[in-house]
Design brief:
This protein has 80 residues and is mainly α. It has one domain. It is built from four helices and no strands. It has helices at 15-20, 25-29, 33-50, 52-71. The longest helix is centred in the last third of the chain and has 20 residues, at 52-71.
């Protein structure tokens, strides 16, 4: 039986990530853990609003295709 509410984490935000968007060490050091949590929550919301579901669908389709190729059969699909 599937656990329908079991989470599968998608991403984390690290202070190191802030360097990748060209922040200085001084700027990064100014963020508290609470600030980082706020930033992570904003990123999560923006991702859900702007691309999460299309990326989710692409990932699902890729895995289904890989399963089909490795098993030489059609993947099972649920019907409504």
């Amino acid at each position: 039986m599937n656990d329908w509410i079991k989470p599968f984490p998608v991403m984390s935000v690290y202070r190191f990530d802030l360097y990748r968007i060209s922040l200085t060490q001084e700027q990064v050091n100014a963020f508290t853990d609470e600030d980082m949590l706020t930033i992570a929550n904003i990123v999560r919301i923006k991702y859900l609003e702007g691309g999460f579901y299309s990326h989710l669908l692409a990932a699902v389709e890729q895995v289904m295709q890989e399963k089909k190729s490795s098993h030489g059969e059609e993947p099972m699909r649920e019907t409504s």
